[in-house]
């Protein structure tokens, strides 16, 4: 059996409600498509019935390969595991497992791939999510775009089609704190955005907690920008300038006008203010140091508990 042309990759964390519907839609896509397609599902340490459903699926349908991680590692790592074991020779189609990213768009994305694009990423036209979440996302993407050294497209997530060579480069990037949409932009080649309307989640709740979203945002900011550290330098310069002006003013008052310097409260205020500024500065540097710390350990990014697939794949070059 030769390798499929396309791998569809979907990470799943407690998606018992969505999974049957996902399978129905994926099957429909595969049945209609002239391409040979495999589906790679990754169980990110689900605590519900997701893993059981996946096991049955992998044993009954040869087109599915299912990977079970040893615990919950988070969306980005689950995706990484999926990309690592995808066998698609032409392209990898990355979607969410909750059907917010319509798998039917494969045809349109693949067409762009055939036109010569290595990365076809989805751009959200409209989000059917809460106002708060929409505003937070919108702010985040604009912030990160303005400070990042890679050209990050606005309003696009991990939903994309990437060519085999881009996938192979991603696999060579051992970054521990992963922000795949940023890494994808960094790789370069020809990239293009396709607009789509992001559906609301049909079943269940978002599996991203506030803490996880914050970590994702931090990964985006600290892994793709040196701006925070530059801000510290600038703050330092501004502070020194203010201090110098103040010193000159005090000296003039003392020696020209013979005033006694006053302002105990002002002094206290300035001390408190700049202690705060220094703590923030330390925290920002700490963020980078922490990243070095975790990366220096060189641990594997994830541990696989089990892989179930019926078809033997041919080893890809470089494996
Ligand atoms: N997900 C995962 N591990 C996690 C959290 C989420 O594999 O720790 C999966 C989840 O099952 C879904 C996808 O990542 O298929 C996107 O997550 P979610 O829909 O919760 O995020 P949102 O769409 O709200 O950003
Ligand atoms: Mg979702």
Task: Describe the fold and architecture.
By secondary structure, this protein is α/β, with parallel strands linked by helices. 49% of the residues lie in helices and 16% in strands. It contains 10 helices and 8 strands. It has helices at residues 19-32, 50-60, 75-85, 106-114, 131-147, 164-171, 180-187, 210-223, 227-255, 264-297; strands at residues 6-12, 37-43, 64-69, 91-94, 119-127, 160-163, 191-198, 304-308. The chain has an 8-stranded mixed β-sheet, with helices on both faces. Helix 9 (227-255) runs antiparallel to helix 10 (264-297). It starts with 5 loop residues before the first strand and ends in an 11-residue tail after the last strand. 31% of the residues are buried. The chain binds uridine-5'-diphosphate and magnesium ion. Uridine-5'-diphosphate binds next to strand 1 and helix 3. It comes from Spirosoma flavum. This is Glycosyltransferase family 2 protein. It is found in: Membrane. Its EC number is 2.4.-.-. It is a multi-pass membrane protein.
Summary keywords:
Glycosyltransferase family 2 protein; transmembrane; 8 strands; alpha/beta; single chain; 10 helices; binds magnesium ion; glycosyltransferase activity; 319 residues; binds uridine-5'-diphosphate; 49% helix
């Amino acid at each position: 059996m030769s390798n499929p042309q396309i791998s569809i990759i979907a990470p799943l964390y407690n998606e018992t409600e969505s999974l049957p519907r996902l399978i129905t839609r994926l099957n429909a896509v595969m049945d209609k498509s002239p391409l040979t397609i495999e589906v790679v599902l990754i169980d990110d340490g689900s605590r519900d019935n997701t893993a059981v459903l996946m096991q049955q699926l992998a044993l009954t349908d040869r087109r599915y390969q299912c990977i079970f991680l040893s615990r919950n590692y988070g969306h980005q790592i689950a995706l990484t595991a999926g990309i690592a074991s995808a066998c698609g020779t032409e392209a990898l189609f990355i979607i969410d497992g909750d059907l917010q990213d319509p798998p039917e768009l494969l045809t349109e994305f693949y067409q762009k791939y055939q036109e010569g694009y290595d990365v076809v990423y989805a751009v959200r036209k409209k989000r059917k999510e809460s106002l708060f979440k929409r505003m937070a996302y919108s702010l985040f993407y604009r912030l990160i775009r303005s400070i990042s050294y890679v050209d990050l497209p606005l309003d696009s997530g991990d939903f994309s089609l990437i060519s085999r060579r881009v996938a192979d480069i991603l696999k060579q990037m051992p970054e521990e704190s992963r922000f795949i949409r940023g890494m994808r932009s960094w790789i370069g080649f020809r990239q293009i955005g396709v607009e789509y309307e992001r559906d609301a989640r049909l079943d269940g709740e978002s599996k991203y907690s506030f803490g996880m979203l914050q970590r994702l945002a931090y990964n985006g900011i600290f892994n793709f920008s040196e701006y925070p550290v530059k801000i510290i330098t600038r703050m330092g310069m501004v502070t020194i300038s203010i201090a110098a002006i103040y010193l000159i003013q005090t000296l003039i008052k003392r020696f020209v006008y013979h005033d006694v310097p006053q302002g105990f409260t002002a002094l206290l205020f300035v001390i408190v203010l700049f202690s705060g500024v220094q703590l923030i500065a330390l925290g920002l540097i700490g963020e980078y140091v922490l990243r070095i710390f975790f990366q220096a350990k060189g641990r594997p990014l994830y541990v696989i508990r089990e892989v179930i697939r019926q078809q033997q794949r041919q080893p890809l070059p470089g494996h």
